[in-house]
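=== RUN LOG ===
request id: a7f3
mode: sequence -> structure
chains: 1
length: 181
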Amino acid sequence: MSELKQAAAPEQALVVGRITSVYGVKGWVKLYSHTEPMQGIFDYKHWWLKTPSGWKTVELSQGRLQGRGLVASVKGYTDRDQVKDICGMDVYIDAAELPELEEGDYYWSQLEGLRVITKEGVLLGKVSQLMETGANDVIVVRACEGSFDREERLIPYAPGTYVLNIDLEQQEMVVDWDPEF
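=== RESULT ===
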């Protein structure tokens, strides 16, 4: 059986996908990717897995599109019985490996947890997640301590229209949004 390499936790652990199941008999796995495009997960060759006994690392050997999904081969895993041990695990990278973005562009992970405040200074809550809807992305804002009320809000992620300012250092997003809505 292949051994996972013990490793220190990544500086800033970021989930980029999940190993969902075994694929074939030669130790390949099916993947669910959170990256955009989904094949972007293959840009990261060094993956961290959080196991009950701590952080472990694996190295991507090969990856490809297979039908509507992704499959990958991990170094040191050559048969389906070996990879069963890593199925169901999230795939992490160190956020420091992400490419630099242009000014005004953000990774979703940077926005999650920001306090959402109206331009009038009313705290609506914190960004709990973002959703892709087709027309535009949507910010899910959940109430937090000190927020205006206990309501969850869905606010279109439309910079310049509804999202007026993002300050990562202050952990705040200013929005043009009626707290009663």
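=== NOTES ===
Residues 125 and 143 are 4 Å apart (CA to CA).
Residues 5-97 form a domain with the Elongation Factor Tu (Ef-tu); domain 3 fold (CATH 2.40.30.60).
=== END ===
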